[in-house]
Structure formats: C-alpha cells, structure tokens
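User: Teach me something about this protein's shape.
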Amino acid sequence: WPLMEHASFANTSTELDRRERRMAELLVHRRVPWSAFLYVGAMSEPRAHQARTALASVGAPVIPVYVRRDWYF
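Assistant: First, the predicted structure itself:
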C-alpha cells in the first residue's frame, strides 16, 4: 500500500518494477458490477468523448467522464 500512496508511477533505480506494480490496482477477477463505478477518467477530451460515445452505445447508465491527465504516467 505505501507504493499506492505515491503520486509517481515511474520506475526508480531501487524499484525497477514500480510501474507494473502500480498497474495491478486495475486488475479485477471476472467482472465488476457497473454500480461500483462512480466516474471514468480519460487522458484527453477526444478520449473522454470516445468513452462517452462507447458507454452510450452499449446502454450503460450515465456516469461522468472526466479528463484527468494527472492520473496517467
């Protein structure tokens, strides 16, 4: 958990796999109920628009899609 509290995803000389270990926070087993999602994050407005369009095309309940550049490394 200490790694998850860091703002940086970048590998360091002492933690060569830091990036990969941070990615593990996105792993799920089989499925996640849609009700567990509060919002979707995207790197850019074009990607946010793409996410909104994709969600609408499958009839997903409407949730906010935010552009959050600081979530990406």
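Now, about its shape. Residues 45-57 form the longest helix (13 residues). The mean pLDDT is 83. If you'd like, I can walk through any region in more detail.
User: That's plenty for now, thanks!
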